[in-house]
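Example 3.
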Amino acid sequence: MYNEDIMERFLNPRYAGALRGANGVGLAKEPNTKETIRLYINVNEDAVITNAKFKAFGSPVVIALADALSQMIIGMSIVEAQELNEARLINMFEEIPQERIYAVFLAIDALNEAIDDYAKKLKRLQEKLLKESQLQESKQNDKKEELQNNENDAEQNVMFNIDDYYE
Amino acid sequence: MNRIYLDNAASTSVSNEVLNEMLPYFTNMFGNPSSLHYFGRTTNEALDVSRDRIAKAIGAKPNEIYFTSGATESNNWALLGIAEKFQNSDKKHIITSQIEHPSILETCKYLETKGFKVTYLPVDSDGLVSIAELLHQLNSNTLLVSIMTANNEIGTIQNLKAIAKTVKEKGVLFHTDATQAIGAINIDVKEMGIDMLTLSGHKINGPKGIGALYIANDVEIAPLLHGGHQERNLRAGTVNVAGAVGLGKACEIACRDIIINSQKLRRMRDYFVEQVMNKIPYVKLNGHKFQRLPNSISLSFGMVEAEALMMMLDLQGIAVSVGSSCSSGSVEPSHVLKAIKLSPELAAGTIRITISKNITKEDIDFVVEKLEEIVKKLRAISPLTKSSIGEFDNV
């Protein structure tokens, strides 16, 4: 039997389930046992994790660690979360059996994947926004040019008219 | 809490009949069976009675039964004893199967480091060894074949008679680990052509720390333990007399009650499986559908991890095991489930339920109800999907 901390989180995980509208999702799988953690994070405009949840297929330790990690990262900035290492997660529990230590790496992997996914989505969003703004800019430029042309045309017309007039 | 024990392939309780027979050998009858005085003669006679009972249970002669500390020692002795006896011959080839107990597999690996060549026969998806493949692998250098009678994880019973016949026709020695099979199927070593057979006490309502190795009289074997003349100079060390008495009684009872017990177990086992299949979707039953130990149920629950399931069942008072109990603690998937080519995700979701004759339908209904609840709870937080992990018996 595992210690109380692990059992409590395993039996009553507070952060289990899918997170709707998550803007970062990370999946990590243990190659040997196929234990899997999917971590969902929600990051706001200030790059702070405002919510986190997980789904796990794994031993009690995997479930407990995924739950602890989800709790730990809420309120962290993305930079802080990136710096989170295995040791800090291990320290949350009194004792993780040696043969289950791999679960800590699995949890951190899921976190890094979620951050990567968020970063990719952010990059895509930024690129999209950039493209949109460029598009808008070029559209505006086009419009300006058109206007200018029209003005020029008008001027020319006027000039012509004037010329015409002077003629 | 009402506790329900469903791990009888790991160990069983000592029955009252067995215990009563054993008790005097802890107190009044404590002599060393090697001593020539009254106290020694009394315990030596008890060993003779026990040897008789074990021999009868498997169709052997009493002087072909050697007491050991259990199945692990018996398996080690059978392989190492034969290998040592024939170490100077050309016969350096051993055949076994991929689904043997670690006490066979690890001993074979050890023998590979000593110059032996070992063939690990594959099994089909039901867990059966192919006779054709066995025949194909047998050659003039084959010294010994060791194939278990029935598997401890999935319960599949091998076609033992056909295997033994194939091996004997080639003039090769045949050993079988019958630890899980005593009391479940009839075994007659003479009729089947078995040279050596392993059996254990605590799997058949006998005590722990006692087992036996049947060695046919015409088989030459080197001892494993040295330093005493016990067991006809082949197994040194004072015999665990109370244990041996318990093993003898347990064998006698197992064979006496074999028909009634296996009928009841089979009925309860089938009811259990039927209830699970009716109530829980995405489940696979492992092992041979019919040629299976009457008390054995290996179930794979899709999208659920077995240790999590086992722990939650334990908190409800229900004891089951994850794969083979001997390998739990390691994170390697079970070698047996791998050999029957179960997908790794399904192997990770496999529990073993081994019932005893004392189980009731009410117990089964309670267990299935709890299983249903827990599986639902774990599936709700599982990131796996049913399509990604393999085929099920029910959807």
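The radius of gyration of chain A is 28 Å. The interface with chain B takes residues 1-2, 7, 10-11, 13, 16-17, 27, 32-38, 54-60, 62-63, 99-100, 102 of chain A (CB under 8 Å).
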